[in-house]
Amino acid sequence: xxxxxxxxxxxxxxxxxxxxxxxxxxxxxxxxxxxxxxxxxxxxxxxxxxxxxxxxxxxxxxxxxxxxxxxxxxxxxxxxxxxxxxxxxxxxxxxxxxxxxxxxxxxxxxxxxxxxxxxxxxxxxxxxxxxxxxxxxxxxxxxxxxxxxxxxxxxxxxxxxxxxxxxxxxx
Length: 171
Known about the structure:
The chain is of the alpha+beta class. The protein has helices at 2-19, 22-29, 103-133, 140-170, and strands at residues 36-47, 53-64, 72-76, 88-94, 97-99. A five-stranded antiparallel beta sheet has the order 3-2-1-4-5, with helices on one face. The longest helix has 31 residues, at 103-133.
């Protein structure tokens, strides 16, 4: 039964990763071809639901590269820079928003992905240990492992974001 729990836990984790931060993370990291170009109209400091700043968002006119798709107004989420009016930025789209490679976006979506995956992976590891031994294992070490994993996810996302910022500044 614990073996089935491992498979179900990993399947749910993968599904949640794909449904929640997956498409945005793929767009931010540049998977796939460029979808189009945004001509920036204005940029502003974006805030989350609690009022904390989440970086710079820009609004602008999106012109897709694919024929048959209509041009429209779009939000460039977590922009790499506060662009001047008229600046053209190549973007990838996900869920009706435009994304480009930026350190703050990598940090935001990397943290979301890590904080989502770590509890599921820890639960799967504990269930796997239970399945191997045939008994219910003590979960104290796995709880500690999950706390360390959550901290490591935030640190790794921060390091990745810093590396992306350095890379975009240099190249």
